[in-house]
Amino acid sequence: MTGEGTADAAIEQWSRIPHEVLEQMEPDGDFCRRHLLNPVLLQMLGEVSGRRIVDAGCGHGYFARMLTGSGALVTGVEPAQGLLTYALEKESQLRQGITYIQADLTRAVDLGPVHDAVVCNMVLCAIEDWRAAMRTCVGLLRPGGRFIFSVNHPAFEQLWTTWREHGEYRVWRYLDEYEIPGSYAWDFHRSLSDYLNELTALGCRIHRLAEPRLDPAVAEQAAATAPGIEAYTHLPNFLVVAADL
C-alpha cells in the first residue's frame, strides 16, 4: 500500500490517539522520550534561548512546550487534527507563544528558510515519503542551521518486544524497506545508509550521531512494571542524528 492515500490514512490513525493517552505523556513525553531521546536532542540543540526552532511533526506538542519553556521561539508543524487540537488546547491554557501550523511535511510548508534549527523527533520513520519530509525540514533552515532527527534504530527496531520473547535481539531483514505495525499506526524500516546518504545529498554535514543507552539504574526501577526493559541498557533502540546545513 503506497501513495497519498496511505499518507492520509496514517495521519488519520495518528489523529485517533485518545486524549487521556496524550495527557499521560505530560509534561515530557513517554518513557523512551523522557529517558533516551529528550536528553540527547537537547544536548544537540545546545542553548535555545532566543533561537527560532521548528518542531517538525510536533504531535501533541510536548517538545515544543519544553523548548519554549527554555526561551526558544517555536513553530510546531503537525498534520494530524487530533494531535494538533490537543497542542492548541495546551497553548490556550499556557499561553507560551508557540505557533502551530497544520501541514504535511511531505508537501510544501512555507515558513521561510530563516530557522536556526529544525527538530524532527520520531517522525521520518512514520512517513512513507520520508525523503520529501526530510527535504522540507532542511529547506526551513538558514545557512548554518542545524537539522536534528530521531528514528527507530534501523538495526534494532522492536527491541523491547523481541528481547522479551527471546532474551536477546534477533533480526532477519535489514536491507529491504517494509512496514512495522504499531499501537496506532505503522512505522517504516529503512537502512542507516538510506537516511545518512539522503541527508548528505541535501547538502548537510553530519555533526553528531547518538545511539542512546538507558541508565541501568532507571531500568532497574522500571523492571517491575516493564519486564525486558533491560534490553535498552545493552542495545540502542533509537538513532539520533544532528547535521548542519
From TrEMBL:
Q: What are the UniProt keywords, alphabetically?
A: Methyltransferase, Transferase
What EC number(s) would the UniProt record show?
Answer: 2.1.1.222, 2.1.1.64
Origin superkingdom? Bacteria
> Which top class of enzyme applies to this chain?
transferase
Q: Which GO terms describe its molecular function?
A: 2-polyprenyl-6-hydroxyphenol methylase activity; 3-demethylubiquinol 3-O-methyltransferase activity
What residue ranges are annotated as transmembrane?
none
The UniProt entry's GO biological process terms, in alphabetical order, are:
methylation
Q: Does the keyword Cell division apply?
A: no
Q: Where do the Methyltransferase type domain residues begin and end?
A: 54-149
Q: Which Pfam families match?
A: Methyltransf_11 (PF08241)
PANTHER family the UniProt entry points to: TRANS-ACONITATE 2-METHYLTRANSFERASE, TRANS-ACONITATE 2-METHYLTRANSFERASE-RELATED
User: Which protein, by its recorded name, is this?
Assistant: Class I SAM-dependent methyltransferase
Q: What is the lineage of its organism?
A: Bacteria, Bacillati, Actinomycetota, Actinomycetes, Mycobacteriales
